[in-house]
Structure formats: C-alpha cells, structure tokens
Write a structure and sequence with these properties.
Elements: H1 2-8, H2 19-33, H3 38-66
C-alpha cells in the first residue's frame, strides 16, 4: 500500500515557491531588467511555456498512436 502512495507523491522538483518567494523573484527581476523590459520578458516566457506544452502534447499523441 505504501508503494502506491509513494508512486503518487509529487517529485521534489515540483515543489513550487510560495507567494513570498514569487514576490521576491519579481522584485529582483524588476530591479535587474527595469519596468520597461518586464512586459517583453513576460511575453517571451509565455511563448516558451506555450511551445513546451505543444511539444509535450505532440509527443504524448505520438506515443499513444504507436501503442
């Protein structure tokens, strides 16, 4: 039974930062890049995440079609 619970546990690298850590990260990014670059950085990050999701979905579909 414990094997099943352990297999369902979230891996340590999925341990996401809390709200205070996110605020600190945003403040540091704002200081480094400035307020004018922030929208550009946000857009680039959003596009990267979108492309990553497309690629992973494509891989999953290919795996399912080969099975």
């Amino acid at each position: 039974m414990s094997e099943i619970i352990n297999s369902l546990a979230i891996p340590a690298f999925f341990n996401l930062p809390g709200p205070w850590e996110l605020i600190l990260i945003l403040v540091v990014v704002l200081i480094i890049f400035g307020p004018k670059k922030l929208p550009e950085i946000g857009k680039a990050v959003g596009q990267s995440i979108r492309e990553l999701k497309k690629a992973t979905n494509k891989e999953e579909k290919e795996e399912k079609s080969t099975e």
